[in-house]
Inverse folding.
């Protein structure tokens, strides 16, 4: 069985405590690898290596850093199929999705930031004829990068690429549930010729390896993507050390369908936004609100399309819904289905473990795509992030009511609005408490735009120059004239 090691100072090394954790393939329930159960000693070694590498890396010309990052992108591309398969096996997601989304995006993340640094500008401010101010943007040092299990390679590269493009070195801590593509990426980063110590990968649980990073005095910035509760713990440890922190957290995203929407498009895309990656995307629309005149027709079509989704072995190219990431996570999601019933909701479809799965995946953590109606919006199922293939549907009577319902949670990550009325679209978009609003689409991502959450969905923005701003310190130089 494959045993993963940490990647420190350009070498694969066993964890200091010598302990390993099983890594399970969610579609089968079988152990597919062992990963280091790293602790503070490993994080210390990685931070020391990253600190040593920093002085030379920050002085490496942008053109050279760019060339090396582009080389990583090429190597990811050359290993496309292997990475897609590994991501699917490790997380339970359909391999078709990994091919369509995860791996292409990892390539793009490196290309995007490799070229962005060749076009970076800075600002100057003239103080009348008395002084010239200009802004220097300088890397900070060792960046701590912590990522979740739902989009493992996609989100890890979304952090590593801008961090090192900007001249920082880094210690990355991928999710202990999905370490496989991070391990492969570490090897490709070495092969690309990125100098030892610039990128280090430490595997292990959040409570030991993750917290050792957030509370490490020599790590001045933390980019974290994960759950809101964990985000609070990151803040608790990083706060007293005055680290720069970016938090991309959970969501309970509304999807508003107005009566004048293109119904066919709205249904087709709402199926994607509800159930892609088994609903395990922070941007999934888990609360569907439909204007009353079309509620019945929308629901009929939506339920019919939900029942047609192909659930099965993630490695089969035709599979549309794979396995949830772990047994514990499926239990949590099933707990919410039971709670929906207790709270007075009706399960219109799904809610069960699928029967008739292919032999290979009978022991996997599957759950049918589930639609719940009839819940009051104050109920826990409508308020808490479920992060699974469960969507609620609720009718609304007016734009004002739709906005109030959409904004009625502590989250504010993303929202979708379906209407053909341009003015209504702009008005509703402006009123939604949400970091991203999609109009007549979902998950259309331009890497230049600011990305992040309002309220308990996060702090700070990433994307384009926002990422480069986060991974640099702005310094004002004031020259008297
Ligand atoms: P999680 O918070 O459990 O774990 C995320 C990462 O943090 C993992 O690497 C984990 O090991 C680590 N971690 C856990 N405890 C830690 C601690 N005390 N200190 C430091 N690190 C710690 O989240 P998850 O279950 O892996 O991912 C699902 C969550 O991520 C969902 O809430 C989802 O909405 C969110 N998410 C948000 C975005 C976004 O862009 N806003 C994107 C993807 C996922």
């Amino acid at each position: 069985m494959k045993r993963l090691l940490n990647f420190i100072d350009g070498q694969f090394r066993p964890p200091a405590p010598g302990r390993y954790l099983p890594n399970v393939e969610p579609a089968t329930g079988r152990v597919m690898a062992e990963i280091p159960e790293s602790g503070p000693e490993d994080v210390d070694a990685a931070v020391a290596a990253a600190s040593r590498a920093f002085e030379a890396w920050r002085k490496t010309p942008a053109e050279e850093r760019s060339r090396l990052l582009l080389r990583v992108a090429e190597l990811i591309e050359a290993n496309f199929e292997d990475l897609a398969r590994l991501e699917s096996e490790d997380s339970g997601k359909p391999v078709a999705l990994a091919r369509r989304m995860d791996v292409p995006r990892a390539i793009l993340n490196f290309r995007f930031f490799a070229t962005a640094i060749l076009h970076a500008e800075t600002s100057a401010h003239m103080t009348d004829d008395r002084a010239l101010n200009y802004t220097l943007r300088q890397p900070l040092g060792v960046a701590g990068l912590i990522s979740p299990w739902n989009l493992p390679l996609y989100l890890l590269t979304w952090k590593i690429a801008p961090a090192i493009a900007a001249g920082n070195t880094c210690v990355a801590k991928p999710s202990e549930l999905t370490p496989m593509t991070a391990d492969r990426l570490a090897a490709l980063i070495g092969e690309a010729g990125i100098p030892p110590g610039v990128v280090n990968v430490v595997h292990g649980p959040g409570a030991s390896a993750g917290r050792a990073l957030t509370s490490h005095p020599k790590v001045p910035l933390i980019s974290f993507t994960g759950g809101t509760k964990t985000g609070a713990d990151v803040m608790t440890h990083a706060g007293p050390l005055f680290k720069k922190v970016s938090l991309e957290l959970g969501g309970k995203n509304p999807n508003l369908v107005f009566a004048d929407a293109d119904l066919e498009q709205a249904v087709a895309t709402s199926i994607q936004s509800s159930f892609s990656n088994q609903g395990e995307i922070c941007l999934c629309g888990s609360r569907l609100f439909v204007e009353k005149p079309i509620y019945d027709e929308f629901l009929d079509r939506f339920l019919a399309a939900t029942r047609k989704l192909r659930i099965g072995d993630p490695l089969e190219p035709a599979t549309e819904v794979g396995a949830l990431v772990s047994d514990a996570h499926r239990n949590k999601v099933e707990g919410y289905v039971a709670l929906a019933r207790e709270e007075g909701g009706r399960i219109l479809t799904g809610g069960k473990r699928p029967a008739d799965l292919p032999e290979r995946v009978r022991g996997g953590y599957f759950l049918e795509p589930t639609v719940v109606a009839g819940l009051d919006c104050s109920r826990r199922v409508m308020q808490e992030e479920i992060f699974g293939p469960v969507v609620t549907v609720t009718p609304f009577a007016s734009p004002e009511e739709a906005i109030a319902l959409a904004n009625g949670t502590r989250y504010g990550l993303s929202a979708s609005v379906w209407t053909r009325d341009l003015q209504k679209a702009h008005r509703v978009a402006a009123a939604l408490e949400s970091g991203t609003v999609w109009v007549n689409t979902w998950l259309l991502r331009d890497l230049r735009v600011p990305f992040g959450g309002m309220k308990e969905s996060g702090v700070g923005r990433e994307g384009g120059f926002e990422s480069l701003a986060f991974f640099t310190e702005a310094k004002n130089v004031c020259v008297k004239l």
Q: What stands out?
A: The chain has a mean pLDDT of 98. The chain has 15 helices and 23 strands. The CA atoms of residues 348 and 365 lie 21 Å apart.
